[in-house]
Specification:
Length: 385
């Protein structure tokens, strides 16, 4: 079976390369991934699979299933959204390609599958929380495991991900002529600036791993008007969701209220998407690593020197045993996710080769999940809180 799956991925190399390059050349923002979702659905249908487009009520989500309806089940996840301005600088085109390659290989051996394999196209990882909507819609119900891989500058079986909360602050002040009658106004921009200052002054108290970072999304209306409205968007992150919720967020909200109070403005607070921290399932990750090693891909289990981001896979990992291994598409330190250079690596021959290796390791690991009861038990034991 192992050799059949590997050969099946190798047989699709050309096709997978074409998909990776095409999605890379058509970067689409969260929830707008019509080209990528359409292309993946076309490829799955061309291989004889039945695809639900617009699955679980999300226009750019996909679902396809193979294998028996009863028995164990595993999901392979494809992300395919891009970033504003910098395109596929997170390499999600390769995530989609790896998932597609794994699914096409498993479809070739469909009649010998002892359980169900689900391909899930999951939109809007970049700030949209597509997987959270899919979770709420029941897309992960009854699954024994969920897996994906992510491109990176090093290969690591498990790396945490920070719990994260998005929040927008809109300050409302009083406009006035900025030269003729500034005393008649209250600057909303001052509220935003004080918000940044207060948060910066609180950094001395933060626990390790906490991250609070924002941008000014509206700095005022015209230079000769005391700004009536100004706004900022923040991400607040921590290693543990409990610390984020009970300490960091209340502190940030107090800073906003204090900034408004000091500047005689009013602040409107809009909570956005939150992501949970990532609970990597070590038995499943180690099995993925065994397959990687057999394929000749070097990796480490964990790299404490590497920084952490956030992902909606965190929420999935709190619902089912899940893995989110990282694979190097460039040399360590050569480029990092969300940089222009990383987008170039995501379309490179090395990047494509990594997606092919990921497809093999995921196909093999997915097969193990549905065929190896001991692995499933171990994964479930590790998952139990
Ligand atoms: Zn990403």
């Amino acid at each position: 079976m192992k050799q059949r799956l590997i050969a099946a991925v190798d047989g699709q190399r050309e096709r997978l390369g074409g998909v990776a390059r095409a999605i890379h050349a058509h970067p689409e923002l969260r929830f707008e991934e019509r080209f990528a979702a359409g292309l993946l659905a076309d490829e799955l249908e061309a291989a004889g699979l039945t695809v639900t487009r617009g699955a679980h009520g999300l226009e750019t989500a996909l679902r396809a299933e193979i294998g028996p309806r009863t028995g164990p089940s595993v999901a392979i996840l494809a992300e395919y959204d891009a970033l504003p301005e910098i395109g596929h600088a997170c390499g999600h085109n390769l995530i989609a390609t790896g998932a597609l390659g794994a699914m096409l290989a498993l479809a070739k051996v469909e009649h010998d599958l002892p359980g169900r394999v689900v391909f899930l196209g999951t939109p809007a990882e970049e700030g949209g929380g597509g997987k959270i909507r899919l979770l709420e819609a029941g897309a992960f119900a009854g699954l024994d495991a969920a897996m994906m891989f992510h491109p990176f500058d090093r290969s690591v079986l498990w790396q945490g991900a920070l719990a994260m909360q998005r929040v927008d602050f809109i300050f409302h002040g009083r406009p006035s002529h900025a030269a003729a009658a500034p005393w008649e106004g209250d600057s909303a921009l001052r509220g935003v600036i004080q918000l940044f200052n207060l948060i910066d002054s609180a950094r001395v108290h933060l626990r390790d791993g906490a991250r609070i970072h924002g941008i000014i999304t509206d700095g005022g209306q015209a230079v000769n008007i005391i700004p009536e409205r100004a706004s900022a968007a923040f991400s607040v992150r921590a290693e543990a969701a409990s610390y984020l919720e009970s300490v960091l967020m209340p502190m940030v909200l107090r800073c906003a209220e204090a900034a408004a109070s000091a500047t005689n403005t009013r602040v409107e607070i809009q909570l956005g998407q939150g992501y949970k921290d990532m609970r990597n399932n070590h038995p499943l990750a180690r099995r993925f690593g065994e397959h990687l090693a057999a394929l000749g891909v070097p990796f480490v289990e964990h790299d404490p020197t590497s920084g952490l981001g956030s992902t909606d896979m965190g929420d999935v990992s709190h619902a089912v045993p899940a893995i989110h291994p990282y694979l190097a598409i460039c040399d360590t330190g050569a480029a990092m996710c969300h940089q222009h250079a990383f987008a170039e690596h995501a379309a490179s021959d090395r990047g494509l080769a990594v997606a092919v290796a990921a497809a093999k390791a995921m196909a093999l690991t997915a097969f193990d999940v549905i065929s190896d009861g001991d692995l499933r038990s171990e994964a479930h034991r590790a998952f139990a809180p």
